[in-house]
Design a protein that fits this description.
The structure is a single chain. 4% of the residues lie in helices and 56% in strands. The protein contains five helices and 32 strands. It has a 25-stranded antiparallel β-sheet. It has a three-stranded mixed β-sheet with strand order 8-14-15, with no helix packed on it. A hairpin with a 7-residue loop joins strand 4 (90-97) and strand 5 (105-112). The model is unreliable at 1-23 and 27-35 (pLDDT under 50).
Length: 696
């Protein structure tokens, strides 16, 4: 890409105009503005203009995923930064970047120095994903199939699929417009406010299915039109004096989805005539409208030069009361019992508090006491819903009613950190301890407690050699695993009573969710830096982490992360600099599952043979996953002459993911390894800047 940059020197000139009685004043001509335009531009204004052309050689969604350079062709390079200062301390400023791209942004500001400013601006973003997708569906959020469509029980019976496919590009464009206002009320109080409006439009995808049993649905990947509106208002008031600093804010956000559901014509010929192609229709609800109101207060209080308190607290309420959609978009399906409510009428209150007391009890000792809390409190009415499964049949019987549940969540953390400067090798010893406990509602585990300890040592025996070592240990203990909690919270008593005791679960009783399981974590990290001379700088980073889920029978049992990264920098001269780096990461994990069917085989509590499948350890399967990643790179910067600067950067990433499957010996289990996933990325960037003259 080639561009031209025109910087203009800054200055401030107070100009006076001649009075009315110029003839009587012999000095009046000296007061008139007689400077040429070039002089005024060089003194009254400050800024730069950059114009040029760029060229993209090929369409590539990955290269242009976020920068607007996804399509082949020429693009305009346009940047502007411009200021003007006037008498009375007034000023204005204009900024514009990426004028020729879909990722452009700009702002215009006017104000009085240190007293008042108002800014109007915009920010455009574009996300581009895989552009090679194809779909047989037509329309936006009411998808239909072409008239010549040939249906079937499976996709290989869709004989007109290839001729029906059309291109589908996944692009999301976001345009945000905002207005900022800042005003200093006096020496201690300052007001600021922001009003913004965001419009997000484009195309994405969503998975959906028509079914009566979710295990065997007629699934499809559907194009989805995105049309979001988001309005936000933020009011802030700040106070500052020698000891106390406060910042209070009120936030309001309104999210509006222009589309409330996505419907599609069933391409399959399964189920009844009213459900199969061409009459059958499926529907899925999209993100509902919602509002948020939140207040936040942050501050700092200085008790003394060696003691201060920092705090950050907030309280917010999110509401969602969008009208419910009907049980099914398929009017041919029978509904005997209406919805229990017209809308959810749900509310979520979120409270946070983060406090830190910073102390210096001794000249070489720093101490920190901290407390954090996060509280999520749901206020949602609990009702039973006889919803139609997958638009595939009539409304089910009353025993299949399901209930919505709340998931209150309280996290509290107490922490202590000590750091002491040792008298030798300019070293520093640190100790960090956190105790965290979490309370949950309607979860498999009601409470988890975790102790986290970190011991660190930083030394610099010489000016050219430095090292930092960290040892970390964490132990998480969970209360009794209530595998049946989600079962009883979700289902109706009529169905529960009709189900045998040994089958009353949704996930296997021995299957532990990894974030709720007992876990021991050990971690070591070592950072070294060495400068053998004034021109060389070498660095090495080592990391090892091991997670052991020691009480888990089914689920994630262990994981390990190993890392080594090396880098070197050589400054041949003030004009030539070379950096090289390389690294290797390996992540390994091991998990276990159990294969079983329903009915009599679902009994997970038998101990005497013959064992049903859910109780039989010989039906366990294991997967050992390994992800390796190699990173290499180099960067060269060279300024052969004062007017010319060149850069060259190269990076290479190679990742390999392997998953090895095995089983415990059941005759009908024959697991096969998943194929390896090998990904390589080469990235080269070359650039240069030529100072043609002072302003170009």
């Amino acid at each position: 890409m080639v561009s031209a940059r025109l910087p203009i020197a800054a200055g401030l000139v107070l100009a006076a105009t001649a009075g009315v009685a110029q003839d009587s004043d012999p000095f009046a001509p000296l007061l008139a503005e007689t400077r040429p335009l070039q002089t005024r531009l060089q003194t009254d204004y400050s800024g730069s203009v950059e114009l040029g052309l760029g060229y993209v050689s090929d369409d590539n969604f990955m290269f242009g995923q976020y920068n607007g350079l996804q399509e082949k062709g020429a693009v305009l390079i346009g940047h502007l930064s411009w200021n003007q200062f006037r008498g009375g301390d007034s000023f204005w400023r204009a900024e514009l970047t990426d004028a020729g791209l879909d990722t452009r942004e700009g702002a215009l500001t006017w104000g009085l120095s240190n007293r008042f400013s108002i800014t109007a601006g915009f920010d455009s973003q574009l996300q581009v994903r895989n552009d090679s997708g194809r779909t047989p569906f037509r329309g936006s959020n009411n998808l239909t199939l072409p008239e010549n469509w040939v249906s079937g029980l499976t996709t290989d019976q869709w004989t007109e699929l290839d001729s029906s496919l059309r291109g589908f590009e996944r692009e999301l464009a976001r345009d945000r417009y905002y207005l900022d206002l800042n005003a200093r009320l006096n020496d201690r109080w300052q007001l600021d406010t922001t009003l913004s409006y965001e419009d997000r439009q484009g195309d994405a995808e969503i998975g959906a299915a028509i079914y009566t049993d979710a295990a065997s649905g007629d699934a499809a990947l559907l194009p989805r039109e995105v049309d979001y509106r988001n309005t936000e208002l933020e009011l802030g008031l700040r106070y500052d004096d020698d000891q106390l600093h406060l910042d209070g804010r009120f936030e309001y956000a309104d999210f509006d989805n222009q589309e409330d559901r996505l419907t599609w014509q069933n391409p399959y010929s399964s189920f009844s005539p009213s459900v199969r192609y061409p009459e059958g229709t499926g529907g899925v609800a999209l993100a509902p409208d919602s509002t948020l109101m939140r207040g936040r207060l942050t501050g700092l209080y200085m008790f003394s030069p060696v003691a201060r308190l920092q705090f950050d607290g907030s309280y917010g309420v999110t509401e969602q009361d969008q009208d419910y959609l009907p049980y099914s978009v398929n009017d041919a399906l029978r509904v005997d019992e209406p919805l229990p409510r017209t809308d959810l009428g749900g509310e979520l209150a979120t409270s946070t508090l983060n406090t830190r007391l910073l102390l210096k009890p001794l000249p070489k000792l720093d101490a920190e006491l901290r407390y954090k809390v996060l509280d999520r409190d749901y206020d949602n009415p609990r009702d039973g819903y006889r919803y139609i499964r997958g638009d595939g049949t009539n409304q089910p019987r009353s025993a299949l009613t399901v209930y919505n549940t709340s998931h209150d969540h309280l996290v509290q953390t107490l922490g202590l950190e000590l750091a002491y400067r040792l008298p030798w090798w300019r070293s520093r010893l640190s100790f960090d301890y956190d105790f965290e406990w979490i309370d949950r509602e309607n979860a498999a585990v009601e409470e988890t407690d975790e102790d986290r300890l970190t011991l660190g040592l930083r030394v610099r025996p010489t000016s050219s050699l430095g090292a930092r070592l960290e040892l970390h240990y964490a132990d998480r203990a969970a209360s009794t695993y209530q595998w049946d909690q989600s079962y009883y919270a979700l289902l109706d008593a009529e169905l529960i009573n009709a189900t045998p005791d040994n089958q009353r679960y949704i996930t296997h009783p021995e299957l532990s969710q990894y974030h709720l399981s007992n876990r021991e974590r050990s971690e070591v990290r070592l950072d070294l830096d060495y400068s053998p001379g004034t021109r060389w700088t070498l660095a090495m980073n080592l990391k090892w982490r091991d997670d052991d889920f020691d009480t888990t029978n089914l689920g994630l049992e262990s994981s390990e992360w190993q890392r080594i990264h090396l880098s070197a920098n050589y400054a041949a001269s003030s004009a030539l600099n070379l950096s090289v780096y390389g690294g290797f990461d390996r992540f390994e994990s091991s998990q276990t599952g159990r294969a079983f069917r329903g009915g009599q085989e679902k009994n997970a509590f038998a101990i005497y043979p013959p064992l049903p499948q859910a109780s039989d350890p010989s039906r366990d399967w294991d997967v050992d996953a390994t992800d390796d990643s190699v990173t290499l790179g180099a960067n060269l910067s060279w300024q052969p002459v004062e007017e010319l600067a060149l850069t060259l950067d190269y990076s290479f990433v190679d990742t390999v993911a392997e998953q090895a499957m095995s089983d415990a010996g059941a005759a009908d289990l024959t697991p096969q390894d998943l194929p390896d996933v090998d990904t390589r990325l080469h990235h080269v960037t070359a650039g240069g800047e030529w100072l043609f003259r002072e302003n170009l």
